[in-house]
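Feature request, filed as a ticket because there's no other form

It would be nice if the structure record came with a short human-readable summary line next to the tokens. Right now we just get the raw output. Example of a typical job, pasted below so the devs can see what we mean:
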Amino acid sequence: MKKRFFVCSVGQPGKGYDSDNLKRIIINKAFILYENTSQKGVYNEIKPNDILLLKYQNKLIAYGLASGNHQKPLSGWNLYSPLEDWFFHDNLNTEIGVGFKGLQGYTIGGGQYGTVKEVYSSFGLAKMEEIDPTSKLLKNIKIEIMKSHKIKVMENVISLLKYKKEIILQGPPGTGKTRLAKELAKGLTVSVDKGSPLHIINEFFKNFNPEDSKVKATREEFESKLKDFYEKFPKVDLHKMTLEDYCIGTGANDSFCWWIERGLQRLGYYFPGSSRSYLIYYSKTHDQYSSHFKHSPHLSEANSIEEAMSRLAEMIAHLVKREDTSKVDQNLGVSYIIKILNSYYPEKYFPINGKVALNNLCKLLKIDRKGLSPLQMNLKVQEFFNQKKVEYKVDMKNYDFMLFLFDEFDLKGEIEVQENTIISKGETKLIQFHPAYTYEDFVRGIVVETNDDNKPEYMVVNKVLGEFAEKALKNHTANFVLIIDEINRANLPSVLGELIYALEYRYDKDDVEGTTVESMYTLKSSDSEEELEGNKLILPKNLFIIGTMNTADRSVGHIDSAIRRRFSFVDVLPRKEPVHVDAKENFEMVSSLFVKNPQEVFESEANPERSEYLSPDFRPEDVWIGHSYFLTDKKDEEAKQELKIKMKYEVVPLLNEYIKDGILINEEKVKEVINKITL
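Raw output as currently delivered:
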């Protein structure tokens, strides 16, 4: 609830009762009003947690936190607004206070009359500072106001981020841009309760429509793919596979391994990470068929690669014909084995084969996976699917369910289920740009690695943004925030490259061509000979970018219009609330060098007007020294000492630099301020 501020008059001067009532007010720790006072003002509007400022003989002498108001069962002075305590300007002489030039301009509604008047919070806070700047009550109110301001700023900027996806926090030095960026990232990536996974899944089965046009199109595509695969590799002929039939890497895009990895990808994603995982593959580097089965007891005994291929073909044929994994070389990997079985028996094996994904899926479905192999987990998931089909009497394929699961949950990431609800967690990464930063540092570049022959090999790899975007793409249920500190210190057009397009057109799976861009570098798997579709760059919608920019730094390059269109710019300006009480006077003096109307800006968020001491070439919003230089978490003498050090070694050098650069144009006035803040 918003806190209201009221000025309460002890009594009308010259009537002879104000002094007595002041004593009554002090003794009872309450504002007390005579019942028959004709002009009570807004006394009846005082509520608990409002602030009362006590007016006595045209001075404000004290303030306190109201706990409400009521009428005592007495006649006369019986209207009471109790307080925890009064905080006086002078506890030894409670009649001493601070002056003011009338209340009309500060009274809400503009009323001139009434014993109790509501005033603007800015006026109330300023007078509390003058009456007693050290009270715990004032400290708590300032904290409350700062939190309220922070929440308001956070809500506004987060709404903007969700709409725009990338923003730049810009402002002069010392306004807390990086701190704000971290707080925004924390707010965006906080763990979110996504609800009961079983409830979400049940709703999917309940509302599934097999007649939906997208469902029909998916089925038609999948059934067509399987038909083509069966025609190319029928079960009865698998034992006849040759090197050319089996091996990926030749570029023909019709081998058994190509179909398992690429051709049937949409029916259940399988990616080995390396062609070597297939044990036999075609090496472009050596322009020949190569093997990777040193540890395979069956294949390593072969006298030639052709004989090894024959043994491998027999092994796969046995697996498909018998569904027996006991004779399959485990070097092939359980995911590959599951993918083969699912491809030939799509109604019996579930179209998810990755160990991590299966583990996560068992968590979601509340399947006890203790002691289960990945293949056994796969069969349990298929069993769950079959039960749900019967329960909801729905015509659904297991790949319909599989596609839903990957859309709804982060199966490849880290899933956390607490008390039957799934928790989605995001991630934040902070980097800092500098003049030497390049596209190859930020997006994608070439590194040198040693291959199996102990020879240097040049590899294209994703860098900071590429890696982070890939994480966000895999976990679309959470938010990922990349903070780029000092974003304007790098050559942005060069660093971003073709991402300038991707920033505006975030990835949409229904418009892949229109929402991806091609990089100048093509990715390969870290140790694979097979080229991926790695020239594509994708920025998902759950990846947010927050840049920070010091507007006073003229040594860095400007941001061109094309990039400006992609970002929203948010001004982060100096604020008075967090400034330490012992530094407020210094802060105001320094602020007056840049801004003609600092108090108006602080109190009503008016636009800053250029001071006469500031060059016409500069906006105060760009160079005004921020509040961070006037903060300390120390107390008493330690606080004063730290603030003196900040003035001498941080603020003064900056002011002198501004004189030298022609930003501040009245050297005499600046020197005067410097002398005062270093006393």
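Something like this underneath would help us a lot:
The domain at 427-568 is CATH 3.40.50 (Rossmann fold).
The CA atoms of residues 270 and 630 lie 57 Å apart.
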